[in-house]
Design brief:
By secondary structure, the chain is α+β, with helices and mostly antiparallel strands. It has 4 helices and 3 strands; from the N terminus they run βααββαα. Strands 1-2-3 form a 3-stranded mixed beta sheet. The mean pLDDT is 79.
Length: 108
């Protein structure tokens, strides 16, 4: 068993990991009081982890890859940028702000 302080553990971590691979235990101490232990894993993985879709998996329907209808595209392109606003107000919101006469080149 090897006991080291945090500073030594940070400075020589690769050495201590090699010692763990050889089967030794390494205790990491804070102010000479053990707070953590490095030891080899109980069982080595013999086959790779399965790559799974996870809990939020879903199937993409074949219709997803079909072209969108012209009517639907027209509706999307003609809709206001911000829902609930009139088309005129949403066009104003799309424009970059103008800084008026106080822009560059004006002297005081």
């Amino acid at each position: 068993m090897i006991m080291v302080n945090i500073h030594q553990a940070k400075a020589r971590l690769s050495e201590f990991l090699e010692a763990v691979e050889r089967g030794e235990q390494v205790w990491i101490c804070k102010r000479n009081q053990p707070v953590a232990e490095l030891r080899p894993l109980a069982g080595k993985r013999t086959k790779p982890r399965p790559i799974a879709p996870g809990p939020h998996a879903f199937d993409v329907p074949e219709t997803f890859f079909e072209p969108m209808s012209d009517e639907w595209l027209d509706d999307v392109e003609s809709a206001p940028v911000y829902p609930g606003m009139s088309k005129q107000v949403s066009r104003i919101a799309e424009r970059p702000p103008s800084y008026g006469r106080r822009g560059k080149g004006r002297r005081r």
